[in-house]
Amino acid sequence: MNFVLRTSGLARNLIARSGLTTNFMGHPIGPKYKVRVAAASEQLSGSRQLTTACLIAGKSLNMAGAKTVIIFDFDRTVIDDDSDRWVVENMGLTHLFNQLRPTLPWNALMDRMMEELHSQGKTVEQIAECLKHVPLHPQTVSAIESAHALGCFSEIITNPTMVDGEGRLRIFPYHDLASFHGCNLCPPNLCKGLVIEQIQASMSEKGKSRVIYLGDGRGDYCPTLKLDRGDHVMPRKGFPLWDRLLSNPSLLKADCHEWSNGEELASILLQLVEKVREE
Prior knowledge:
11% strand
């Protein structure tokens, strides 16, 4: 079973700067990726069982031997808040953020927020400390641990970051903005649908596999439309992904299982994992 964490905000890029130069599959990690972090690491969750979550260099997706691939969104799915907004609100950036929000795309806006924190003398470590307090439901941790004995994310797909020579955290788009990725459902910095297609292509080389996708936001709609019959999507009830799927369910091939909180996420996810194992 493989776990993939699909992310775009701050927490999974910052907490527990590891200093690793390769990921667990041996792929090299360049300077731009050295501050990527295990999103469900011990510093975030307080769980000893999740410290094996790993970094990736944005290279090939290795799904060898996986019968089930579980793909998590991060904000409001793994954690119970939005990591970008958490930093904005808890580090005193709300006024500036609201001023600039109409003028900048989200990716560039958060890079500007990091510039402001740097100008105030705030360090990457202080930002990481702030993020350690993001709410994370204990049942979400338990579900990940139970579904995978090692509690391991085998891939983390996120907007790359780096700390420049002056100690300022920089945030960059996953896709090259010079060439539009071609999806009108997704923001310009990252199309999750393209990521899903990469994963599916890798899986198809290894035989029959199933995908379980967990998410909440508008950006999770595109990848759910890429899922096949026999796959499963778990949208968070009352959030944009759930609304989109509810408005036109005929577009979805995968089975849909809504959830509202950590208890429901854990219960449904483990039931689906067991179901796939028995197929």
